[in-house]
Amino acid sequence: MADTSAASPLGDAGDPVAGDVLRVRDLAVDLGGARILHDVSLDVRSGEVVAVLGTNGSGKSTLMRALVRAVPVAAGQAEILGHPLGGRVPWHRIGYVPQRVSLAGGVPATAREIVASGLLGPRRLRRPRDWRDRVDQALADVGLPGVGDHAVTELSGGQQQRVLIARALVRRPDLVLLDEPLAGVDLPSQVAFADTLRALVASGVTLVVVLHELGPLADMITRTVVLRHGRVVHDGPPLAPAHGHDDPAHEHLHAHEDAVERGPVSLGPEPFCAEI
Ligand SMILES: Nc1ncnc2c1ncn2[C@@H]1O[C@H](COP(=O)(O)OP(=O)(O)OP(=O)(O)O)[C@@H](O)[C@H]1O
User: Where is there biased composition of kind Basic and acidic residues (predicted)?
Assistant: First the structure.
């Protein structure tokens, strides 16, 4: 269990695994001289599966990047696992998979080496004894059994994405932040990946997932947060398909203006298109 003795600017976080895993208050991020996130507040409790939705450029990736300190916070506060963002956060208990990036550049490495690097950290410079079994299991969990010896340059973009997801999962994290994990992944692999996430959630892992389409993850999502122009415009139960959107032929990727224009945050079930 994490040391929660540090004073919390957001109040008593209590047991971080039994309670809030993530607490965000009035978070603002500036990039390129512009405010990208405005007053974002969000609590994620242990065991939740939170989908972060929103149109292109609404700030979803920026929020995730701010939470892992990849971009600076201009205002507001955030806590992960009971600790303010900073060196005391137990980063080894957090798995983060950025939006699709290519692994093709740089030093050639095998998929196994990439995944094994997830077992290392500033305070853990040696791989555990069972590293090879853990790495191979993580690769199997993302639908890539047997590719451990392949150079990542030989893998497709979607397979590279799954190698990065395996790298996050091999840490056996308590909190997993995934930025568009389904992008570029074929449907059978999405289904296999959803099964892996379901098993993780059953074991107590908390998920925050940026998505454009809910896909095979739809039935496991417990809450949706919708961003628009860098602000939270919906934070509540999973979005129900709006009128006509449960038609399998409907594939629009948009928030319904009548729902998002009503106010900054709506807590009730809203008639959003589930495929924002
Ligand atoms: N490094 C940067 N410098 C300046 N502006 C940036 C930077 N990174 C992102 N932005 C801008 O911030 C806004 C939000 O981008 P972000 O990638 O967070 O959106 P998103 O909701 O994840 O979009 P998408 O669904 O397309 O991935 C966009 O207008 C983007 O152009």
Answer: 243-258
